[in-house]
Amino acid sequence: MRTVNRKLAGCALGFLLLIAMRLAVPADLRMIEVEREDDRYSLRSEAYFAASHEDLYRVLTDYDLFEQFSSAYIETHNVEKDEQGRPRFFTRMQGCVLLFCRSFVRHGYLLLTPKTEIVAIAEAEDSDFKYSRERWRLQTEGEGTLLIYDFEMEPGFWVPPVIGPYVIKRSLRAGGGDAIDRIEALALGRTPER
Length: 194
Prior knowledge:
Number of domains: 1
Oligomer: single chain
CATH superfamily: START domain
Number of helices: 3
Shape: globular
Radius of gyration: 20 Å
Strand content: 35-45%
CATH topology: Alpha-D-Glucose-1,6-Bisphosphate, Chain A, domain 4
């Protein structure tokens, strides 16, 4: 009788784990829009993460982790705070338009509202961008977090006029979609898949 009860308990536990895995909601990119006006590009997205906003905030403020978000990041790290006490960052990304490949550098600082908002501003004098501003807003939604992301940038480098704007818009759209699962994995304490 004990053997039967153990088998039933084992089956029930396995069934419950299977249901729990099916109910776990992975990161979900709900919306992404990319626009261009003259030389300025903007991206807006909304994504749901099955992670707390505290854990997501921790990951998004740690530039040492950004290389794990996307293969476009080839070097990222936190930098010593500035004179005003603001956290600073450095990123080097690489992208290609047809046969034209380029590395892009951003040095900047963060404006933080703990656990709810992150604003990253690139310093034009030390970056390959005339303008670059990112804003992450984190809101609790159910058991997870809704992340509203706004990114606006103006390259400080030559963009091939015919195909360049199309490729930049496509890259921004694809890069955001690819990164959300990796960001969620890091927020949940897992190693993201490459």
